[in-house]
Write the structure tokens for this entry.
Amino acid sequence: MEIKVLGPGCANCFKMEELAKTAVKELGIDATVVKITDIVEIARQGILSTPGLMVNGKIKHSGKPLPSLEKVKELFKGES
């Protein structure tokens, strides 16, 4: 599974990255978490409001408020 966290480096972007990594660890899934900070690449991926979360090329979350850890786990379970 490929997970992308998209954001320029704000506090919420770092929190989203931590949520993603924690969910992967707790679920015990085989996944790669990639952080994308380049604004042009973020827009190219279709994320207009950060932080963004993509799973296997599909946008799962964009903007605020941040999802809970349980919600992130649900998003990942649907893709594994």
